[in-house]
Automatic annotation (TrEMBL):
It comes from Phyllotreta striolata. The keyword DNA repair does not apply. The keyword Transmembrane applies. This is Amino acid transporter transmembrane domain-containing protein. Keywords: Membrane, Transmembrane, Transmembrane helix.
Length: 475
């Protein structure tokens, strides 16, 4: 789901722009007044959509295009390998189900945030603010976690963004090495190829104004489309019998598929950012609205390339399908370099939200007011350098592209994309709007359990495979 063209992804999620994270969202002198308004029905008159301030609101079509750009990224090239873990038939069915689950959870998240904004009478809430509000207004057992909720949410957001950057570092190193090995003898190690790009990655991370990357981002989007075309060209050649690939994979490897598929299809960051910036946000959740149309197209594209890639290459499929293309073909070499360039551009965009979350939530609030702007800028550049250093350390330590993608998906998106939206919805409708026989409560509890199981099982399976692969010298 990480896209070379996504300039808005997650940016509004971590920086608390509406409310002060250190103060209670509900523990104010106006709490009784607010509750009275809610009980008397006045809160229903407040429409958060009318109280949002966006300098450049997007139309429905623009939002749909941004959603497609933000949700289709490196994960699509790893989906054929994910089918190796699940099996062809199991993979097809599971991808459709996970696509439906992801879309439903995004509906839950956006709808529940709207309900909480009405209760709190604010235009919008960031993801950390939503989690804190959920703990404060939800079941009593959650109240004790309210002070920790923003920090936990920010941890997953930061881990997710840094994890994407790690995937990008490994992706560029692996693909450039695959091309260079055709011309440089003896072959140079992946470690050295990756280290060659430390300075370029550092320089693009130091770009503070994302508008400077806009022209390159447009070029990256065109490269992405070209890459999909080349993938179609290769996968349709010499297709074996459909029965040559197993219908079902080993059960123990299914969590690896789950993590990669969730990484690819779950777009919570893109969705919140785009819905907050729409000129007509009420169109977002309609039956034929932006979300349903966009996620249907995204799921279809991922499913198509996963099926065709696994069908064509079978168990020989690699962590990125571009690595299966004939290395001696000039076309394959060109597309590997071009897509690596697109991913390189996207690195700065994906690192931006993590930097902003750390800076606005943990650095600026804890420095003296008289601190000069120059020193604040130094702090920001230190954070940017630290993010690049961490991504390279992790990428060099675990240069396993497919397993890293699966780990990020299972660990981060099981929480951000499944469990947390369920917690927010449960709290938004607490205690007397949970439906007949409190079905919303039971449904959300089921989603929370599913998220926890996905996080634990997926993370364990990925870490186990990473340790096993590294111990055997497989990189």
């Amino acid at each position: 789901m990480a896209s070379a063209g996504d300039t808005v992804k997650l940016e509004p999620l971590g920086a608390n722009k509406i409310l002060d994270e250190t103060s209670g969202l509900l523990d104010t002198g106006d709490e009784e007044k607010r509750r009275s308004q809610i009980e008397n029905g006045h809160a229903e008159e407040f429409d958060p959509h009318l109280h949002r301030q966006s300098e450049h609101p997007t139309t429905n079509m623009e939002t749909l295009i941004h959603l497609l750009k933000g949700a289709i990224g490196t994960g699509i090239l790893a989906m054929p390998e994910a089918f190796k873990y699940a099996g062809m038939i199991n993979g097809i069915i599971s991808t459709i189900l996970i696509g439906l689950l992801s879309t439903y959870c995004l509906h839950v998240l956006v709808r529940s945030q709207y309900v909480m904004c009405k209760k709190l009478r604010v235009g919008l809430l960031t993801y950390p603010e939503s989690m804190k509000a959920a703990c404060e207004m939800g079941p009593t057992c959650l109240r004790r976690f309210a002070p920790w909720a923003p920090g936990v949410t920010n941890f997953f957001l930061i881990f997710y963004q840094v994890g994407i950057c790690c995937v990008y570092v490994v992706f560029v190193g692996v693909n450039v090495k695959a091309v260079a090995d055709q011309y440089i003898k003896p072959e140079i190690s992946l470690l050295l190829y990756t280290l060659m790009f430390f300075i370029p990655f550092l320089l693009i991370m130091m770009v503070r104004n994302l508008k400077l990357l806009a022209p390159f981002s447009t070029a990256a989007n065109l490269i992405t489309l070209l890459t999909f075309g080349v993938c179609g060209y290769y996968v349709f050649q010499n297709l074996p019998a459909f029965s040559s690939v197993p219908a079902f994979g080993p059960f123990v490897s299914y969590p690896l598929y789950f993590g990669t598929c969730l990484f690819s299809l779950q777009a919570c960051g893109v969705v919140i950012a785009l819905e907050n910036n729409m000129a007509e946000p009420k169109s977002f959740l309609k039956p034929l609205g932006v979300l349903n149309v966009g996620m249907t197209l995204v799921t279809f594209v991922y499913l198509w390339l996963a099926v065709m890639g696994y069908w064509r290459y079978g168990d020989q499929i690699q962590s990125s399908i571009t690595l299966n293309f004939p290395s001696v073909d000039i076309l394959a070499q060109v597309i590997r370099i071009l897509y690596s360039a697109a991913i390189f551009i996207s690195y700065g965009l994906q690192g931006y939200p993590a930097v902003q979350i750390i800076l606005t939530n943990y650095i600026l609030p804890n420095i003296k007011e008289e601190t000069t702007d120059k020193r604040k800028l130094i702090y920001e550049y230190m954070i940017r350098f630290g993010c690049v250093a961490i991504t390279f350390i992790l990428g060099l330590t675990v240069p396993l592209l497919g397993l890293f993608i699966s780990l990020v998906g299972a660990f981060c998106l099981s929480a951000l994309g499944i469990a947390f939206p369920a917690i927010i919805e449960m709290s938004a409708y607490w205690p007397d709007r949970l439906g007949k026989r409190r079905w919303i409560l039971w449904k959300d509890l089921l989603l929370i359990v599913l998220g926890i199981v996905g996080l634990l099982a997926g993370s364990y399976s990925c870490l186990y495979e990473i340790v096993r692969s590294l111990s055997q010298g497989n990189t």
